[in-house]
Amino acid sequence: MNAVVLLSGGLDSYTAAAMAKAEGFALHALTIQYGQRHVEELEAARRVAAALDVVRHVEMAIDLRTIGGSALTSSAPVPLDRDLSATDIPSTYVPARNTIFLSIAMGLAEVSGATDIFIGVNALDYSGYPDCRPEFIAAFERMAALATRAGVEGQPLRVRTPLIHMTKSEIVRQGMALKLDYSLTHSCYAPLQGSPCGRCDSCLLRAKGFAEAGVRDPVVMR
Predict the structure, then answer these.
(1) What are phi and psi of 36, to 5 degrees?
(2) How far apart are CA 41 and CA 202, in angstroms?
């Protein structure tokens, strides 16, 4: 069985991909260089892909800086020390990012003979991005059934989101059960000379997850 896994180099995508491998899938990894403001996550994705012994690691460049609208694809400041219970959509939201990523993954799945696409989105401990919600994933899966040869021939792709209803601490515990090396990962939106800032949404959520799981974060300890 083949699966396409979206790898960002972060904790969530690593865990979701490892769960796919634990199910017996041969992994075709996809990492998108979308014009993000730092290269650390791309380097982390390569480390994670090697650790997972993927069949193939596709890296594709699509410059979303042309569209703009996000602190992650511009020089706009990344929000720091934000209240994680806030309901507004932060400036780190990248317009249509997961729609674009999943569309590319859908194409790769067709040519790779993959039946499943795994993406590490989460709708509990997350920053409030609209394209991380179950409703979006369900709608995309319906679209994929109409837009692909596999779907027309009666074998529609499944979009798998094994983390979507898990807290960050549950994700960390799942990774520990799978014996994942989280020192390979990178989560920070605004790294300082390669080190996590500790103050952006992603750092705060990661710290919350490790603390609640009772596990030390090996990245923070570097």
Answers:
(1) -60, 155
(2) 12
Domains and CATH numbers, the chain: 2-213 (3.40.50.620)
Cα dihedral sign, 134-140-143-144: negative
Residues 174-212 pLDDT 10s: 999 999 999 999 999 988 877 899 999 999 999 999 999
Which residues have CB under 8 Å from 92's CB, separation 6+?
70, 71, 72, 78, 79, 127, 189, 200, 201, 202
Cα-based distances in Å from 176 to 204, 210, 213: 20, 11, 10
Would the pTM count as exceeding 0.90?
yes
Of 144, 154, 163, nearest in space to 14 by CA: 163
Amino acid identity at 70: S
201 to each of 46, 49, 78, 184, 209, how far by Cα in Å? Answer: 23, 25, 9, 20, 12
